[in-house]
Amino acid sequence: MKKMFLASSFVDVADLFVKFTSAKCVGKTVTFIPTASLVEEVNFYVAAGRDALEKCGLIVDELEISTAPSEEINSKLQKNDYIYVTGGNTFFLLQELKRTGADKIIKEQISSGKMYIGESAGSIVMSRNIEYVKDMDDFTAAPNVGSFSSLGMVGFYPVPHHTNAPFKQVVEGIITSYDEKIDLCPISNTQAIIVNGDEFEVWTAQT
């Protein structure tokens, strides 16, 4: 059964993640993929996410898919307990996932029941097509992405950073443009989408 934890800002909802795993995450190893952040000037969330995972008791095993050899990509995605994909540029992320074949391995691992944790771009890339976030991310950062067809592991379209600066207006624009066309699921930085099989619900962290 698919088990996914899709967030806007992992550090703000780490307690919800521990709850989702029934605190069984302690001692587990997570493949940590920071690739989406490589083309972004702002990337503080990468270190914040890593720290939050370690505070939850996880062992972080980094995998930079844009430079890692295919054997390493295969090995880490298959052997580690969880997969975590950080925020950043969704289009660059998708380009590198497709180019390396990591997209297929991740889909297989999720389908076989491995926990997937996505943050912002890492959440968006689970939808069927990422064209809806063109106003949020610079798609020119991924000249070789080909189509915007994505991993399609969920039937809805996550919209991270709902009501949060500096994305507030951009997110409102996405909702206005696409709300009647596709099944959007906006979440704020203190919310996460919990996926169990074909069911999903939004959890909100206590502040």
Record keyword descriptors for this entry.
alpha/beta; 33% helix; Peptidase S51; 207 residues; protease; seven-stranded mixed beta sheet; two-stranded parallel ribbon; hydrolase; single chain; globular
Apparent shape = globular
Distinct helical segment count: 7
Distance between the termini: 31 Å
In the predicted model, the low-confidence regions spanning at least 5 consecutive residues are none
InterPro entries: Class_I_gatase-like, Peptidase_S51
Keywords: Hydrolase, Protease, Serine protease
Family: Belongs to the peptidase S51 family.
Protein name: Peptidase S51
Describe this structure in a few short sentences.
The protein has 207 residues and is α/β, with parallel strands linked by helices. The chain has helices spanning 10-20, 44-55, 70-79, 90-100, 102-111, 121-124, 168-178, and strands spanning 3-7, 29-33, 59-62, 82-85, 115-119, 157-159, 184-186, 191-196, 199-204. α3 runs parallel beside α5.
Explained architecture:
- By secondary structure, the chain is of the alpha/beta class.
- Helix content is 33%, strand content 20%.
- The strands form two sheets. Strands 3-2-4-5-1-8-9 form a seven-stranded mixed sheet, sandwiched between helices. A two-stranded parallel ribbon has the order 6-7.
- The two termini are 31 Å apart.
- The model has no long low-confidence stretch (mean pLDDT 97).
Provide the fold topology.
Blueprint: E1 3-7, H1 10-20, E2 29-33, H2 44-55, E3 59-62, H3 70-79, E4 82-85, H4 90-100, H5 102-111, E5 115-119, H6 121-124, E6 157-159, H7 168-178, E7 184-186, E8 191-196, E9 199-204
Parallel strand pairs: 1-5, 2-3, 2-4, 4-5, 6-7
Antiparallel strand pairs: 1-8, 8-9
Helix pairs in contact: 3-5
